[in-house]
Amino acid sequence: MAYSSSALRSISSLKSSAARSHASAIVPTKPSLLSFKLAQNPCLLTKTTSSGNFSGTKRSFSCRSQRPWSPAYLRLSQKSVNSLGDLVPFSNKLYTGDLQKRVGITAGICVLIQNKPEKKGDRYEAIYSFYFGDYGHIAVQGSYLTYEDTYLAVTGGSGIFEGVYGQVKLQQLVFPFKLFYTFYLKGMTKDLPAELLGKAVEPSPAVEPSPAAKACEPHAVIVNYTD
Hints:
- This protein has about 230 residues and is mainly beta.
- It has one domain (about 30-220): Beta Barrel (AOC barrel-like).
- It is built from two helices and ten strands; from the N terminus they run αββββββββββα.
- An eight-stranded antiparallel β-sheet has the order 1-10-9-8-7-6-5-4, with no helix packed on it. A two-stranded antiparallel sheet has the order 2-3.
- The longest helix is centred in the first third of the chain and has 4 residues, at about 15-20.
- It is globular and about 45 Å long.
- The two termini are about 20 Å apart.
- Residues about 1-30 and about 40-65 have low confidence and may be disordered.
- It catalyses: (9Z,13S,15Z)-12,13-epoxyoctadeca-9,11,15-trienoate = (9S,13S,15Z)-12-oxophyto-10,15-dienoate.
- Keywords: Chloroplast, Isomerase, Plastid, Transit peptide.
- This is allene-oxide cyclase.
- GO terms for molecular function: allene-oxide cyclase activity.
């Protein structure tokens, strides 16, 4: 799969009685929405937008892969062209949208479902996670099309992302190296830390993380970032 290059803020209003109860009993007075963007190489511009039933203030951070050995293509079909059953495991680095801090990685696997020669691309079933050190992780699953925009389901999370659900829009920029993600999340019960909410830079294939973030210097990483 590609490198997942990938801030969020809950705008839910919780009933006071529900807030004191167990997390599973928390009931928003209206649907909660939290959205952010992730990109493989480009960065993401914070703006207000809407998508279907998911709308609200959008914040963003980006992610970029720098692992030279990822992704790996395993031709289990033993055919010369991409075919059903081929596997693509991957792990890529994540940075904040302003590209000033290293936050973690993406990790997962894609299973090739169908080769589309007329579209010069493929359809994969993707299962992977975005890891943010001590803050937790977000899990996603769904179709990944290399030739058009697609939506994957957000299936859950841990840490500050416990109980989240929603969807993520995946936009292909440069296959397989640059992807752009926009997350639409519901169910957040905790505020996002300020270090994840920096203003993202304009999307561009040429952008790079800061030298300090690349070097994982102490001031340019989140606490216990996932490596």
